[in-house]
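Problem 12. The chain below contains 193 residues. Write out its predicted structure in token notation.
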Amino acid sequence: MDSSRMHIEVRRPWRAGESLFLLGPGGVGKSSLGRELSRQFGWPLIDLDLEFCARIGEIGGFISAHGYERYRAENLALAGNLVSQFERPSVLVTASGFLAAEPGTDDHNVSRQLVGTGYSVTLLPSLDIEAATAIVVERQLTRGFGLRRETEIPKFRKRFGIYRAEGDMLVVGTEHPSQIAVAVQRALEGGAA
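Solution.
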């Protein structure tokens, strides 16, 4: 594996058995990495976007009908409910704006408390905001969600700064999810307390 393009920064050692929370803007590969880590560890996978769609409704339609703030509230409540039901370590893929609430708000505080119940792994494709924006916006525009470049660019750029500073581990790279998962598992187990 060529790891020269991948950067992993362990900010806090993982405690063996802690659930993993995958963080980052949309299009960085959280769902793909989540599937790989779930398989590697043999842990349940909870993808918050998929759970929202299955239990509450299609995200875009829900936001159109009820607004983004109501979506955030429902999404956070669902995440809290799912985490409270963990019977063993799990991998939880958070939504793209999960930690993007304004600092000081209840949403901001509750989302961070929830993520603090496990070990958070933040994903970004590059530490260079220009390169990261180009990669992620192109990915987002090809996902079939009807997203537009003129809204995705500023949204990603705002979230890049938020997520760059978040997480117990920062993973930067564009390698295949299986390669990233192997590197993440090694980093987790190498620093496990």
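Discussion. The longest helix spans residues 68-84. Students who got a different answer should revisit the alignment rule from Section 12.3.
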